[in-house]
Amino acid sequence: MKTSKILTLLLLFTITMSCKQQPKKTDEKQTVDETPEVADEVTAIELIKLQGSPSYDDASLELQSPNDGKISEGGEANFAFTVNNYDLGVQTDGPNVELLANSAKGQHIHFILNNQPYSAHYEPEFKKEVPDGVHHLVAFLSRSYHESVKNENSVVVRKLEVGENPVDSIGLDMDAPTLIYSRPKGEYAGADTENLLLDFFVLNTKLSENGNKVKATINGEEFMISDWAPHIVKGLPMGEVTIQLELVDAQGNLIPGPFNSVVRTVTMKP
Question: Which of 22, 102, 179, 253 has its CA at 20 to 30 Å from residue 5's CA atom?
Answer without folding.
Answer: 22
